[in-house]
Input
Amino acid sequence: MNTPDRPADPDAPAPARRARFKWAWWLLAYASLGTGIVGIFVPGLPTTVFILISAWAASRGSERLHGWLLGHPRFGPAIGNWQAHGAVSRRGKWMATLTMAVCAGIMLWCVPVAWVKGFSIGSMMVVCGWLWMRPLPPAGA
Output
């Protein structure tokens, strides 16, 4: 006896699954994009992370936004390299490292609580180490 979601022929392709919670993915994609854009102007608020989250969520909830992000002259190459290879450009790595170093300096100067400084700067060091272990994009990408 066959179930309705399983085809009778085992070699036949499975029916296209309906995207569950497509509205939630759509909402997350646009909210992340908005937060990333705000991050361009607000020091300390990351931009790249939110743009990557937006692309990831858009791939599940908004083909139109996902296509726009991949085709964007500024964000598209970085998103494409990340999705295809898990790669980050050398320039991106240096920019992230520089930004984290500046934020660490500001924290050392402004934050009076030692454990907050230690935890935050330690977290930035872990992220920086992880980032530099990511591969570089292929030469033609």
About this structure: Residues 69 and 118 are 36 Å apart (CA to CA). Residues 12-17 have pLDDT under 50 and may be disordered.
